[in-house]
Amino acid sequence: MKNLLNTSSIGLLAGALMLASCGNQTKSTSTTDSTSTETTTTVEKPAGLKPTGPAPEWGPTIHPEMQAVIEKLVSYGDKPTESLSAVDARKNHTPTDAVMDLIKENNITLPAPGVDTVGKEIPVAGGNIHLRIYTPKTGKGPFPVIVYYHGGGFVIANIDVYNASAQGLAEQVGAVVVSVAYRLAPEHKFPTAHNDSFAAYEWTVKNAASINGDPKKIAVVGESAGGNLAANVSIMARDKKIMVPLHEVLVYPIAQADMTTKSYTTYAAAHPLNKPMMAWFTEKYVNAMAEAKDPRISLVNANLKGLPSTTIITAEIDPLNNDGMMLADKLKAAGVTVDTKNYDGVTHEFFGMAAVVPEAKEAQAYAADALKKVFGK
Predict the structure, then answer these.
(1) Domain spans in the chain, listed from the N-terminal domain onward
(2) Residue 175 pLDDT more than 50?
(3) pTM for this model (two decimals)
């Protein structure tokens, strides 16, 4: 199973779909505006997900379920992403492959998806892009709408790989989710992904009613590169004077170009994202390395005033951990209401792993609660 996964089978990975088992506690640090509180959340853990070896040197605090996923991913023996062309890197196994295999190996039975999906092609400058629209099977529309942007460093992955996040949010929030297949680099250089992302948002604002959505209740969500794109959509909506999203959820977003931060240094060799991969992603997307400091990529340099309330989720074992925290500080300084939560013991890409990683289930619930609040649900 490679990067492009079967949609029907990957659909089983929806965020809320996780076997209930023994209750254990997972600690997460929660920050609202400039105040800080420690919260301890009881999270149901699936049975039987245990690592086979010791914690890796790059992640001594990794939690067992997360380590099991990483062990499975490493077991495929793929060549390092940063050593490959973009075309070949897209053929590597993904964390989603690892989760799917663990589900099979541990005989985890998941309920059927609670959404219907349909594809939609829309025109953008220089071509077309694909949208996947998730609609809840229960409830009565018009539903609130979430425009979702997947990760992959602007270069790899797709809406199939990130299906679990989009589907989980649709089910838990009770919202229509529009997942955006923006064009990838290096075939499409900066700022193509950013412009495609805004075009998809603008299409959604204009056509929400046609997809059983409420045009007055639209939010944006993104992971990693997608977190960067979601924030940029809010900025572009503000600047172009169209409806600004009601809320944005940014999951371990790319937010700045300095690769000497504490988290970049501490987790330089982490999996599934490491420092060499981030340099590779940047080189593939930008036209010249100086563009990495453009405020559209380095969000910490952008004008962040007037943006919607924001939820930022970070992972402890992640080169981008400090990116999210730096962006939160900049947003607060610009007068934006910000809630943040950092999840200990997990790596980049954990958010979509709710079927096997308890912190992911809790993080999706945290994001869903924030979205339901702004949607008045």
Answers:
(1) 7-375
(2) yes
(3) 0.90
